[in-house]
Design goal:
The complex is a heterotrimer of chains A (about 270), B (about 250) and C (about 325).
Chain A: H1 3-6, H2 9-30, E1 33-34, E2 40-41, H3 47-51, H4 55-87, H5 93-101, H6 108-119, H7 124-131, H8 145-169, H9 173-181, H10 186-197, H11 199-214, H12 218-223, H13 231-239, H14 245-272
Antiparallel strand pairs in A: 1-2
Chain B: H1 2-26, H2 42-48, H3 51-84, H4 88-99, H5 102-116, H6 126-150, H7 154-162, H8 167-196, H9 199-204, H10 212-220, H11 226-251
Chain C: H1 2-14, E1 24-30, H2 38-46, E2 49-55, H3 58-65, E3 74-75, H4 82-87, E4 121-134, E5 156-158, H5 162-172, H6 182-196, E6 201-202, H7 207-213, E7 218-222, H8 223-232, E8 236-239, E9 245-254, H9 261-271, H10 274-284, E10 287-288, H11 305-308, E11 311-312, H12 319-334
Parallel strand pairs in C: 1-2, 1-3, 5-6, 5-7, 9-11
Antiparallel strand pairs in C: 3-9, 4-7, 4-8, 4-9, 4-10
Helix pairs in contact in C: 5-6, 6-12, 7-8
Classes of the chains: A mainly alpha (about 270), B mainly alpha (about 250), C alpha/beta (about 325).
């Protein structure tokens, strides 16, 4: 074995032992029967998968996809100008990048609670609006799909901004000047020059946002007030309140298969272009 | 155009930071609930008097550092190895580990550890948490360093090899220094991911391995808690200062 | 590389135990369920080093201890998990000779339904689920059905827990709280879906702050959390629904895997001291099962016998009913 093969040995060991082997156990679980209080027992069965054919679960999956897609799109639309600004910021680039990441050093839960605090009936937003005389009754800002979406966008915006920035930073400013010289207006330059050139960043950012949003369960619980179920909640419930590890395993394997397929198709299409 | 972008960026930064600023402001609130009752430092004092919080912070720092060192080394070797020659199976499984929902990673690791610990004289604890963190952060490190490698010129290392350097020397003396910024960024990411993780950690933790996010989670699920605000404020300020210092160093 | 990893691992393994030669006791409890000085005082008087860990749900604890090599000595499962745990041979039988303070337990916890001889467990804390509401809205609620009323204007929350929500629906329909009859459960589901349109959210402990601030006017909530909200706001009151309501008790158990049974008994006996129990109640603001502890008695935390008589101790659902209940819960949530 030559040296370059040795470079991959630690990763092979880590992934083999701490990802593949555990995943194999989950595959095993998905074919077993639930134990009385968690865990899995014999006999072997396919029932956990047939149970998933229920249209109720398909509907939940579709709803989760719609939500994750909306969050990804919003992150892209909101993150793109920010990434563009940072990539044009000269010496301050690094500082601005760090500012994007700074809130993420605090716990996810803490950040979410901060939003609850702002958006409640007696929260800061409603209080300020009422003081300004703009509203007479507090607006229902929390516990709806919009709040879930806000939570997801807030939670994953940096995952979009960082790769976008990495891609935008490589674009030669001379290209934009050339476009301007040729009479392109700024927005046209963005549309015709910058966006096509930043495609790799858009692809990477979209993946990094879409995938965790699809599996999210805390945000729908906290910001949505537990009034919606996303696929992540379904999986989570099986391992907690419902104590049905085999069904939870089956559901998560299906989710995993689906996500990988989506990722594969997406990457393929991105490559072809 | 430029003015529009600056204005937009200011708004975006406000969006990212206002919730935390409000939180920090309320860490100085005298009352326990979310109604302003006057300035007070009592929540900061109670951090110091909470041995659990102090110990959990210690654990979190140890776990984050240990897993960052391990995962960054493994990830750097992996990215380099995959740059030298294709390893589709490894790459595929790395990406798969990235798309696995946290809860599934956590449960599968718990099941795995419990399975092998039937024969091994180990228990869930700090060690299993570190291993779990390494397992889920290797892929982040690999992706970031790989991105850096794709912009690198292969001919530099080839030149070194032509001049008689061994493969190891070429890696150590040529490629590694060029990779340094990428490795630093990757290590930072690994550190954040490890420091923030709750779901996987709580599942593989055992005796002696309570982390800060676990304590914060336990407090937060019982409703708004000013002690958490104080802890968060300290974390934000600490990292804010670190950022400013590193910027100064960079400029100097 | 390998050497470094071995080093980190061994350092991790030995970090905490290498420097401390005192005997150890590992205690796994719900979060916020102990006073700040409970453990230090015990360590001081017994010369034991205690490792204390917390969990957020029975399932989290069970996932860890069910293989029988978790390293924990003592845990605090809810009453309806005691029998399943005993059946799976996870619990050590208690030696009452080492627990003279058992006499301090309140009478009704001397022989509880879930473990009449206290063979495996010692009741620790208990609570109930009822309704906490804002007095400004009249008439005040008296039963679960009042949570379906339009008078709250949508400012009602229910617990984010299938057992409690479906149970409340069953009770509203005058059916048993832990029914497993599919038709009864179907009726409960309809009631829950009807209610979902007019409630604000499914919240657990988070409801407390929102009740205090006035965002929420009525909530299905645990008696202990409600008491905390009432302490913070005079406008709030609590009622035990007339249709019946669930009672829960968390119990101290010694795990069978424990190699320190004597020490574990010593700790349990220590917990049963009136002054220790009272100190814990003062911090955690819960209701203790200790009858001799001098604690604040409120009708919310310690309801009078006639109200207690309406309470039920829910059993854990059998597998098939659990599955049905999970499907119903999913349907309610995605309706």
């Amino acid at each position: 074995m030559n040296l370059r093969s040795w470079f991959l040995v630690p990763a092979r060991l880590t992934i083999g032992l701490f990802f593949a082997a555990p995943l194999a156990i989950v595959c095993g679980y998905s074919l077993l029967t639930r134990g009385d209080y968690g865990g899995a027992e014999r006999p072997w069965t396919l029932e956990n998968y047939t149970r998933l054919a229920d249209p109720l679960y398909a509907q939940i999956l579709l709803r989760s996809i719609a939500m994750a897609a909306a969050a990804t799109l919003l992150c892209l639309v909101l993150g793109f100008p920010l990434a563009l600004f940072i990539s044009r910021a000269g010496k301050r680039k690094n500082l601005y990048l760090q500012l994007v990441v700074l809130p993420f050093w605090t716990s996810f839960l803490v950040r979410t609670y901060a939003w609850l605090f702002l958006l409640r009936d007696t929260g800061l937003v409603n209080t300020l609006l009422a003081r300004a005389g703009l509203i007479h009754h507090p607006l229902a800002l929390l516990y709806n799909n919009g709040a879930v979406l806000l939570g997801l966008v807030y939670g994953y915006l940096p995952f979009m901004v960082l790769p976008l920035y990495a891609a935008l930073e490589k674009i030669d400013p001379a290209l934009l000047e050339a476009a301007a010289d040729l009479g392109a207006r700024p927005l046209t330059a963005v549309r015709r020059v910058i966006i096509p050139l930043s495609r790799p960043g858009i692809v990477a950012g979209s993946i990094l946002v879409f995938i965790p949003c699809l599996g999210a369960y805390l945000t729908p619980d906290l910001m949505g007030g537990g009034k919606t179920v996303m696929i992540g909640n379904l999986v989570q419930n099986q391992f907690t309140t419902s104590r049905d590890w085999p069904f939870g395993s089956a559901a998560s394997l299906i989710l995993l298969a689906f996500t990988s397929l989506l990722l594969y198709v997406f990457l393929r299409r991105a490559e072809v272009r | 155009m430029k003015r529009f972008l600056s204005l937009y960026a200011a708004l975006a930064f406000a969006f990212l930071h206002v919730p935390l600023l409000v939180l920090i402001a309320f860490s100085f609130n005298g009352g326990k609930f979310t109604v302003w009752e006057g300035f007070s430092l009592r929540w900061y004092q109670s951090i110091l008097h909470d041995p659990q919080l102090v110990e959990a912070t210690g654990n979190s720092i140890f776990i984050a550092l240990a897993s960052t060192v391990l995962s960054t080394s493994i990830g750097a070797f992996t990215a380099y190895g995959m740059w030298k020659r294709r390893a589709p199976v490894l790459q595929g499984s790395l990406y798969l580990s990235l798309v696995t929902p946290e809860i599934v990673t956590g449960i599968s690791l718990l099941a795995f550890f419990q399975y092998i610990f039937r024969w091994l004289p180990f228990r869930l604890g700090l060690m299993t948490v570190v291993l779990a963190h390494v397992a889920f952060s290797v892929v982040y490190v690999t992706v970031v360093i790989s991105a850096r490698l794709t912009t690198m010129d292969r001919s530099l290392e080839e030149a070194a090899l032509d001049l008689g350097a061994s493969e190891w020397t070429a890696f150590r003396r040529i490629t590694l220094p060029l990779l340094a910024p990428g490795i630093a960024a990757a290590a930072l990411l690994a550190l954040i991911v490890s420091f923030d993780d709750y779901v996987i950690t709580s599942l593989v933790a055992g005796v002696d391995s309570e982390t800060l996010p676990m304590v914060v989670y336990a407090m937060a699920r019982r409703g708004a808690n000013p002690v958490i605000n104080a802890v968060s404020a300290l974390i934000v300020v600490l990292f804010g200062v670190l950022i400013v210092i590193s910027e100064r160093v960079r400029e100097a | 590389m390998i050497r470094r990893r071995a080093f980190v691992l061994s350092a991790a393994a030995s970090a905490s135990c290498a420097f401390d030669r005192r005997p150890r006791l590992n205690i796994y409890n719900w979060s916020s369920y102990i006073a700040a000085d409970t453990i230090p005082n015990f360590e001081r008087e017994s010369g034991v080093r205690v490792r204390y860990g917390v969990y957020e749900s029975n399932e989290e604890m069970l996932a860890k201890v069910m293989t029988g090599n978790s390293g924990w000595d003592i845990a605090f499962p809810t009453h309806n998990r005691i029998q399943p745990m005993a059946k799976n041979r996870l619990l050590a039988s208690l030696d009452h000779a080492l627990l003279p303070n058992l006499a301090n337990l309140e009478n009704r916890f001397q022989n509880p339904v879930w473990d009449p001889q206290l063979r495996y467990c010692i009741p620790y804390m208990w609570s109930a689920t009822g309704i906490v509401y804002n007095r400004a809205i009249q008439p005040a609620p008296v039963g679960w059905s009042d949570l379906w009323s339009p008078r709250w204007n949508g400012r009602v929350t229910m617990l984010d827990d299938p057992e409690d929500v479906i149970g409340a629906c069953l009770k509203k329909l005058r059916l048993p709280f832990d029914s497993i009859d599919p038709r009864e459960l179907e009726a409960a589901k309809q009631a829950a879906i009807e209610q979902k349109r007019q409630i604000r959210a499914y919240l657990n402990a988070e409801a407390r702050d929102q009740l205090v601030s006035g965002d929420v006017l009525a909530a299905q909530l645990w008696s202990t959390t409600s008491q905390q909200a009432m302490d913070a706001s005079k406008a709030l009151a609590f009622v035990y629904p007339f249709e019946g309501y669930p009672l829960y008790a968390d119990n101290a158990v010694i795990l069978r895997e424990s190699t320190r049974q004597k020490l574990a008994h010593q700790f349990l006996n220590y917990l049963l001291r009136p002054e220790v129990a009272a100190a814990i109640v003062r911090t955690s603001e819960t209701a203790t099962c200790n009858g001799r502890a001098k604690v604040r008695q409120t009708p919310t935390l310690y309801p009078p016998p006639d109200i207690l008589a309406r309470g039920e101790w829910p059993a854990v659902l059998p597998a098939s009913a659990q599955r049905l209940s999970d499907r119903i819960w999913t349907e309610i949530k995605s309706s």
